[in-house]
What does this fold into?
Amino acid sequence: MELLTIGAFARAARLTPKALRLYDELGLLPPAAVDPHSGYRYYAPAQLDRARLIAALRRAGMPLADIRAVCGLPPDAAAGAVDAWWRRVSADTAARGRVVALLVDQLSERGTTMSEPTLRYAARCETGAVRDSNEDTAYASATLLAVADGMRGPGGAAASAAAVDALRPLELSAAPAAELLATLADAVAAADRRVRASATDGHQPGTTLTAILRRGSQLALVHVGDTRAYLLRGGELVRLTQDHTYVQSLVDQGRLSPAEVAAHPQRALLVRALGTGPQVEADLALRTAIAGDRYLLCSDGLSAVVAPEALHAALAGADGPETAVGRLVDLAYAAGAPDNVACVVADVVTA
It folds into this structure.
């Protein structure tokens, strides 16, 4: 068998001799022969497939330790391993992208000033076309926006209402903007206790909650469950919350693609909610109110049946919050409205 010099093999594999020496040291691609006197490496033509696979995986960004594992597998198993790795990378990249987008947004907002921002708002809460009861709650005022989705069964409606009611005293609170997140965190803990206290006949109700509390130019966002918050700014619609669901955890782990979520039989299974688990764990974020922003808070009765593109079009094309919520509810009914539908739309305006 005619062997190739390291230079010829590197050219054929589209690698560098330096990379080949590294792969040899790591045990990824040992040469077929080594000259005992000069130490010069020689490779067999049959090693080109493995070398090209390693080169392709390195270009994709796969760590060498993962490449070693993939190279030790038969082709079908290797393909599955590469696919699973890429799903994990994609989920991690998406999560990092959301963090970076929020950081850029927040840093940009620090250089923006506005006087006396306020909210112009509208809220709707519909039973839908299939359900015979409504477990959702939607609330809006100039200082508080909230949507909650009670779990089906005894106490669901009471739980969502109790969660929102626990936040309403904050509308009259004189707590300074600097204490906004701490104030909201305390209120959510109180909401969790109120929901737990509403248990009846051995049944413990639960509810999601997504809310925004305004204090001056500051907006505090709290989120538990799969109700959602969106921001329309400069023509772009950005989702501000991440669902606390079992299927989202699978997406984050790279075990499920985002495209597979809608068809998953456990897509509505929550891993976080008020009234369930040992202790409430809420996501909290602080934002700056900027004139022209439009916020949407909604239950999954809207977000699960209406595509993001349609949400975007309805929000961007409406002349005010009342028109927007009307269009959004109409879209939910056009999609069959299989669940309760709650939504709040609020515009940031200057007084």
In short: The mean pLDDT is 86.
